Amino acid sequence: MAASRTTGYETTGPAEQERVEQVLITDVLLRDGLQIEPVTVPTSDKIRLASGLLEAGLTSLEVGAFVHPEKVPQMADTDPLVAALQPGTDAALHTLVFNERGARRAVAAGARHVRFVVSASDGHSRANAGTDTRGALERLEPCARLLTEHGVRIEASIATAFVCPYDGETPPRRVVDVARRLVELGAKVIHLADTIGAASPAHIRRTVCEVRAALPAQPLGLHLHNTYGMASANAWEGVQLGIRRFDAALGGIGGCPFAPGAAGNIATDDLVNLFHHVGIATGVDAAKLVAVRDQLHVLLGRKLESALSSVPAAPVALRV
């Protein structure tokens, strides 16, 4: 079978089952990582963290969300943050958009990449977006028109794609229905999110296979959390299924304020270590990544969640 490779945002060839050449990691530290932190990180420090991540070789970051500042105060500076970071970089700086007001703010700030977020389950959608899944999708229709008119690239994340804290396991067919609608709205990539970190490799395989069968040409990504310690196993299962796009947060921090029990994201440093150990390129300089992680540790003033942040030295594979 011919090998598949991911270069930037385009996929060439069929999903491979033999040798993986490269994956694309989007670091979501500045959004998903910081959104539930009790410490509000100043904009200047966010810029410093973003610059360090880019210097380490990451070409895709999630930097904020255009949401009401009273609901998620850590995201209140998304507008000036995007305006400061976007000029002069070719990196994809993603921001979240939930409604038309958020879309207009994204355009005004100069955003070039946005993500829609829709929950596959009604229970989480009501908690997170104030409406059921159907209502959330309908709300995005004018957003999609506005962003497309201004040449903004749209991707989409499907929250609770595997398990919901309110509704239990999410039927794969429901994920397929949401994915179809998001593609109709212009989403170039669909990211399947294990929002509460309760999925197993069996969940990943079942849902990814069903979505791919329904949308064989649609690039897919995984957004994983590590609540039950399964994130690395789920990432590896994704690799075997041909997934080449992964979200991760430096230090393994993060979680959803509207998903009870959700723990941190799969850690960027741990994920890079995993891929480098098996010979999969990430484009990331691991030594520089560790330096940024040290900055994050100081800013938050607490122990980080990644496995590598608890050991005294980087393993050989990370230093290569």
TrEMBL record:
GO terms for molecular function: lyase activity. PROSITE patterns: AIPM_HOMOCIT_SYNTH_1 (PS00815), PYR_CT (PS50991). Residues 23-290 form the Pyruvate carboxyltransferase domain. The keyword Transferase applies. Keywords: Lyase, Metal-binding, Transferase. SUPFAM superfamilies: Aldolase. Belongs to the alpha-IPM synthase/homocitrate synthase family. Belongs to the HMG-CoA lyase family. This is Hydroxymethylglutaryl-CoA lyase. The lineage of its organism: Bacteria, Bacillati, Actinomycetota, Actinomycetes, Kitasatosporales.
